[in-house]
Amino acid sequence: MAVELVHSDGWLDRVGDGFSRALLREDLSPKTVRTYGTGLKDLFTYLRDQGVDDIHHLTRELLEGWQDDMRERVPALKSSTRGLYATAARQLVRWAADRDMVDLKLERAITGVRTRRKSDEEGRQPIDEEDLQRLMVCLGPRRSRMTLIDLRDRALFFFFLETGLRVSEALQVQRTAYQRARVRQKGGSYVEFEITPTVAVFIGDYLRARTDDLPWLWIAIGNNTGQIRQLADSGVREIWRKLCYRLGIERFTTHQLRHTAATILLEQDVDHLAVAKHLHHADTRTVHKYAHVRRKTKQRTLDVMEDFIHEGAQISPELLARRSPPGGRPRYR
Fold first, then answer.
1. Which of 62, 90, 109 is the endpoint of a domain?
2. Is the pLDDT assigned to residue 51 strictly greater than 90?
């Protein structure tokens, strides 16, 4: 289907920019906005291939053709990717319909994509107990000639294990406020976390080895260039991959560290609500409205994580006595 291109406020680039600004005004995370943008870029590319550059000419046939194209490509896009792109397109149609650019009925042309949910055996289980012990014994003790990367990986692993934060949340943390801070979740709300003395020691060792002045707590170092930049989620996955390869254990994900933290706390009889608060579970919002976790119970949660990491990582009293960098708070008590 080809139509004559006419300059109007319905040009795709303008529409895409306006839609992105609207998402940011809703306080969606930049990562979510970028993900939606990738999906819309794919849609706009297809529309332009059909000779359409004005959203006023959007039709059911075009939307259905785009969805068929995603599925029939070689290689075809994964169902999860097609699902994300479809969600972005559906949100765009709603936004454009509110501005009388398209008919809201076009939303029905965008079909939901059925994706197979991962089972517990595919990444939702905690790290194997023996593998976890090997990881902690390998990473915990301070050894001579540890490089900046060694110190970073050590601190990063125990930081994730203790806090149970998601990758997108952990990578927001600034180096000047890592012991107790607020981070934004993917839905736009903010949550607080704090760390215990042992993990503070690990991070302190890592920060003392850094010579850069970047504000982020977690950084990546280029293999060939040596360029220092903010660590990305892909970089975290690569750190875990190399670590597992070196130890000869099964690969794990950051989300498994989150499940591992929950398992540790529950096995130590920490209150279920306290565990939910610690991991910022979205599916306990109703409980949060009617219940309150007292400071004593929160402290119990932190104490359990501190004892588990301190013992498992085989930390000497002399090491724990070392203070964190100037300005940091070495203990949470």
1. 109
2. yes
183 plus 289 within the same structural domain: yes
Report how far apart the first and last C-alpha atoms of the chain are (Å, whole number). Answer: 68
Domain match, 87 and 163 both: no
b/e code 161-173 from CB counts within 10 Å (16+ = b)? bbbbbbbbbbbbb
Give the Cα separation of 183 and 179 in Å (integer): 12
The 8-class DSSP code of residue 105 comes to G
- pLDDT tens across 164-203, in order? 888 989 999 999 988 888 888 776 788 888 888 999 999 9
- The structural domain count of the chain equals 2
Select from 325, 273, 302 the least CA-distant residue to 193: 302
Per-residue confidence band for 287, with pLDDT thresholds at 50, 70 and 90: very low
Q: Which of 83, 109, 135 is the last residue of a domain?
A: 109
Instruction: Say if residue 141 is preceded by a cis peptide, omega within 30 of 0.
Output: no
Same domain, 129 and 101: no
Answer yes or no: pTM beyond 0.85: no
Is residue 84 located within the same domain as residue 150? no
Least confident of 21-25, 59-63, 293-297: 293-297
Q: Domain residues for 131?
A: 120-321
pLDDT number for residue 1: 37
Amino acid 235 reads G
In the chain, % of residues over pLDDT 70? 82
Listed as own residue / partner, the contacts of 63-70 with beta carbons closer than 8 Å and 24 or more positions apart are: 63/89, 63/106, 63/109, 63/110, 64/109, 66/42, 67/110, 67/111, 70/42
Side-chain-side CA neighbours of 142 within 13 Å: the count stands at 17
Residue 210 lies inside a defined structural domain of this protein: yes
Residues in the chain: 333
Pair 151, 92 in one domain: no
